[in-house]
Amino acid sequence: MSDIQRPEARTPRGFIDRRARDLVAERKILTAVSAIYERYGFEPLETPAFEYADALGKFLPDADRPNEGVFALQDDPDTDSGQWMALRYDLTAPLARFAAQNWETLPKPFRRYAYGPVWRNEKPGPGRFREFVQCDADTVGSARPEADAEIIAMAAEGLVAAGVPAGAAILKINSRKLLNGLMASAGVADDGQKLAVLRAVDKLDRLGPEGVRLLLGEGRLDESGAFTKGAGLSAAAAERVLAFTEAGAGRGDTLGQLANVIGGSAEGDEGLAELAAIDAALTSLGVGAAQAVFDPSVVRGLEYYTGAVFEAELLLDATDEKGQPVRFGSVGGGGRYDDLVARFTGERTPATGFSFGVSRLAAALRAAGKDAASDVRGPVVVIVFDQARMADYFAVAGELRAAGLPAEVYLGQSGMKAQMKYADRRLSPAAVIIGEDEFAAGTATVKDLDLGRELAKGVTDNAAWRAERPGQATVARSELVATIKKILDPRP
Questions:
Q1: What pLDDT band is residue 285 in, cutting at 50, 70 and 90?
Q2: Who has greater pLDDT, 345 or 244?
Q3: Which residue among 4, 351, 389, 476 is least enclosed by CB atoms within 10 Å?
Q4: Residue 279 class from Cβ within 10 Å (0-12 exposed, 13-18 middle, 19+ buried)?
Q5: Given this chain, do its domains 169-309 and 380-488 carry the same CATH topology?
Q6: Which CATH number is correct for 380-488, 3.90.780.10, 3.30.530.20, 3.30.1660.10, 3.40.50.800?
């Protein structure tokens, strides 16, 4: 018996391995959304995975060892000058650092998009991982409401480009200025009480008006018996807040109803004027109320955003792996954050942006049967009969690759049956079979594996399509490329 201590093969908690289907789905979303951003004139930017911890701000409560919320390590830990670095938890904090560091040389406003993995040192759960992919677009240096509208319009286009059917997603828009105006009109001045009110409003979708009413007052006892202390508002103030949240999800009418609730507050009126300008710009950009609405119940980034906030919500019916209904809700969000760059410069710099949760969006599309990688295929597999003719098999694969067709030669030691099973596991569209008889006759046998999978499902439609695609055919070598191309794209 061996005494060697072998490590257990295991995935770190909160992280996942992703194979072709996941990666291709995310890549398609990134390619589609990036094309939208570039069409609007945004330039790509890539910043490092690590930032110095002090540049990341509020996620770091412990300056001596800032690992809560992020993954951090010390730069040059054996020296007195060692500094803490942390993996980025989003793509916006690195942008703020970059803008502050390079502001003098940047075109202003600075319009950039970025994508890549981000990391959060948080407790993982179902569908909640410690590493995931985001795709952002931001404008830094413009305080105009039209800059917010443009970001929202891009998000709406990006959802469609990513594969979300028309009408299956909605952009919900609110403003922190309206929320601040609401606080003023309800007589809420204490910061702690403000935070409690906002948290109560944020639970409207989950708890409904009655649950929020309890949280705005003395508190709420949940099903488990746990008590959540409320914001302590008077009954009249609580009703004012609920009237704000129930102003409806529309555009023009919603603004009118909101004005009735918070009109007269200077900051609230400013927020209303900005939303009116956003409405006008969205209309001119062709974004109607079916794509983007004002929703006063939207609360994002309680201490982060300074103006307009927006959230992309999926309306698709989806099921989990057990066939149970699941609601994905938000797949992206953003808003105006005019104070972030000022952390470095001391000068307020207006900024607005939106971030797609690419990993979450890909998972949601799959759960809804709208998988962006549903057509993922492996390469054409060239079956090997004679090890002595490997050079000839590589020539066949080279011929297919030269025509732009992914292809590989089987490099294992197994026989015909195992090679066909290998091709099937690779999701190969076809296998090329060339034995001595085919070499002598200048032919190749092509097995249509896509058709085999279709027939295995017991599908009864597309009879004409199947009739024109024999499961296996022997063709002249000169016709091999055309035959494979017809399998990959059978359209006339």
A1: very high
A2: 345
A3: 4
A4: buried
A5: no
A6: 3.40.50.800
Q: Nearest CA to 279 among 254, 249, 252? A: 252
Binding site per annotation, positions for L-histidine: 90-92, 120, 134, 138, 300, 304-305
Tokens of 216: 């705005």
Model confidence band, residue 335 (pLDDT cutoffs 50, 70, 90): very high
Query: Is the overall model pTM greater than 0.70, yes or no?
Result: yes
87 Ramachandran zone, left/alpha/beta (phi>0; psi -120 to 50) = beta
Binding residues: 90-92, 120, 134, 138, 300, 304-305
Q: Which residue type does 167 have?
A: G
Identity at 477, one-letter amino acid code? R
CATH dotted code for 169-309? 3.30.930.10
DSSP string of 7-59? Answer: PP--PPTT-----HHHHHHHHHHHHHHHHHHHHTTPEE----SEEEGGGTGGG
% residues pLDDT > 70 (the chain): 88
Eight-class DSSP state of 409:
E
Is 9 within 8 Å of 17 (Cβ atoms)?
no
pLDDT recorded at residue 58: 56
Torsion sign, CA atoms 49, 53, 57, 59:
positive
Q: How far is 268 from 284, CA to CA, in rounded Å?
A: 25
Q: Given this model, what pLDDT does residue 224 score? A: 77
Q: What is the mean pLDDT of residues 374-396?
A: 90
Count of positions (residues) in the chain: 492
Confidence of residue 460 (pLDDT cuts 50, 70, 90): low
- Give SS3 for 376: coil
Pairing type for strands 472-476 and 443-448 reads: antiparallel
| Three-class SS state of 456 | helix
* Overall CATH class of domain 12-49+88-164+315-376: alpha beta
Q: How many CB atoms lie within 10 A of CB 329?
A: 14
Alpha helix locations (H) across 51-168?
92-102, 145-161
Give tens-digit pLDDT for 53-74. 888 865 444 444 556 788 888 8
Torsions phi, psi for 131 (to 5 deg):
-135, 130
Q: Give residue limits of the domains in the chain.
A: 12-49+88-164+315-376, 169-309, 380-488
Structure-block tokens of residue 304: 């982060």
| Helix or strand run (H / E) with residue 273 | helix 266-284
- 117: which 2 tokens? 């993995």
Q: Are the beta carbons of 147 and 109 closer than 8 angstroms?
A: yes
